[in-house]
Amino acid sequence: MRDTNQPNAFEREFSIKELLNDRYSDIKYLLQFKTLIVACIVCGAVLGALAAYFKKPTYTARLTFVIDDAKSSGSMSGVSSLASQFGFNLDGLGGASGVLAGDNIEELVKSKKLIQNTLLSAYDDKQTLADRYASAYKLDKEWLEYSPDGKTIRFPLNGKNNTRLQDSLLHEMTELILEKGQFGISKPDKKLGFFEINVTFKDEKLAMLFCRQIITQSTDFFITTKTKRLKNNADRLQLRADSLEKLLNSKTYSMSNTARVGLDLNPAFTEEEARMDIKQRDKIVLSTIFSETVKNLEASRTMLAQETPTVQIVDEPDLPLKKNRLKYPIAIAAGVIILLVFFAAFKLITRKPLKPESYT
Q: In the chain, where are the structural domains located?
């Protein structure tokens, strides 16, 4: 009886030589259909050329900027630059902190909130970037069936009270921009502080305006987030200084009137002198408090100026933008290769198996 635990004596072992021979026999078999191969080459080339001709070009807007943050230019910046040459990232160990730390900038610029705010900015006097994007990518027609009044969905400038339908379409446009790679931000050189924004759309003007508006939205967000606490403190000190100034001016005028009236008073009445002394004392106290408040206000303004980052645009997109076309040689080569692969796969799958050799 045959032992089932023993390996199959007739099982074929893997052989590279045999594998190469099999592939060689496949090629010899396919070369029998030379006429069909030539037809596939011609048809693939024609299809590739047609694809390159009918495919609409896209346009890429490129913008580079650098952020000058006083807090990030400390002693750790040199160490981080040195470590980056050896493949280490020390951005989180020192230098910038909070919203401008490390790779936070890239994530912030790609946030859905900033992208949606950018889409709601003006394309021209009649439409927003969202309106133009929906038109360029046929989303306005696709979503027409969801419109309750049968009209194209439009977006008001800087819309704050959008309907549920408008928010849904805006969300889909944001997802398409991020998922299809139409918008991206990167740091070309980790050792430098330059950031590069690339926007690729079918509409040339839309790509340029979106690229410019996204950096404007991001700059406002950077500065607001970075300086919000100090700005609120400076505003409170300014209000207090204004109030003290009004009180001090009022006391000054009151002191002047009291001093003028006091010249005509009978020296026997000492009560008026006491009132003058009290007003003089109040004026001195108010003057001291006002001086300290103004001093603190100026110190707060100085700190605010030091903490405020500067976003400097290095290269800005201008028309005409870089045009991305499907090149004819690449399209033709791709068409020929794809059609030949399908032809070879079909022929090899439908090939009749060879009759097994008889063994004596």
A: 16-53+328-349, 58-226, 230-307
